[in-house]
Amino acid sequence: MASITYPVLPEKLLLISLKMYFTPERTTSYMRALLDPANEIVHPQNRDKLLLALIPDFLTIWPCAEILKEYENKLVASGTSISPPPFFLGAQDCMWEEYGAYTGEVSPAAIKSLGCSIVELGHAERRAIFGETDDQTARKAAATCAQGMVPLVCVGEITAPGAVASEAVGQAVAECAVLVRAVLAAIPADAPVIFAYEPVWAIGKPKPAGVDHVAAVVEGIRGVIGSRPGAARVLYGGSAGPGLWGAGGLGKAVDGMFLGRFAHEIEGVRKVVREVEESLGVA
Ligand SMILES: O=C(CO)COP(=O)(O)O
């Protein structure tokens, strides 16, 4: 069997999921705005340090992939390298089988063929509303790696921290560890993987989880991952937005952020990108 080539992950990642919030028209104009050089959001020269990715709904992956190709062609025409790619496209889920009689499901091979590099798996909403299990998520992660894509696995405790901070951290790490271990056991050791630490109680709220809690849980998750040949990145998600990364923020604790509502306006994305670039010394 031919060996699989995986995407190369940079130091920091900023991923945006549109969940099911946008019309197709809004998604495509948003994608164009993200890539528009005038908006100063994607900087291909910083690619080794910071990479952005958009995870639209299934219907808009194809048009977004076409927009991305146009953008890359312009870069190549102006003499800018697109290897490694300056921007990633992702999917919000996939089936654990490659093809077959699975009505309503989406093949990881089809997702790959459209140009996606990342597949988000096991999001809290898929677990709570659609009953996705750890075992299913792990199988989907294996199917994602088999296509040479990167699984973006969401983990996070359900209950908000109580009065004793250390107990809350231990409980959160223990809850996250179950899926982290299941996924790592299912994927090749050399496959890159991204874990998004998203405390369920902090998703869809006005404010994110506290920096100290996130930093301690992420450290615990890194301990569970341990050392492995493939790259592993741990991001934070859950009401993340401008102001969370810089001084006294999450920048020192995590490998990036997974953005939802606070990335719906391009200005919000620009602010977050700037904060990360400043911390990396590439602003
Ligand atoms: O679930 C999330 C990203 O997948 C976070 O969403 P919000 O930032 O809208 O809470």
Give short descriptive properties of this protein.
283 residues, TIM Barrel, 8-stranded parallel β-barrel, TIM_sf, 15% strand, alpha/beta, globular, binds 1,3-dihydroxyacetonephosphate
Shape: globular
**Radius of gyration, rounded?**
18 Å
**How many domain modules?**
1
**Biggest sheet architecture:** 8 strands, parallel, barrel
Mean pLDDT: 97
Could you name the ranges where pLDDT drops below 50 across 5 or more consecutive residues? Answer: none
How far is the first residue's CA from the last residue's CA? Answer: 43 Å
Name the helix and strand elements from N-terminus to C-terminus, one letter apiece: EHEHEHEHHEHEHEEH
CATH C-level name = Alpha Beta
CATH fold label = TIM Barrel
Output the structural class: alpha/beta
Care to count the β-strands? Answer: 8
Q: Report the bound ligands by name, code or SMILES.
A: 1,3-dihydroxyacetonephosphate
> From the coordinates shown, what is the CATH architecture?
Alpha-Beta Barrel
CATH homologous superfamily grouping: Aldolase class I
As a percent range, the share of strand residues is: 5-15%
Which strand order do you get reading across the main beta sheet? 1-2-3-4-5-6-7-8
Counting DSSP H or I runs of 4 or more residues, the number of helices is 8
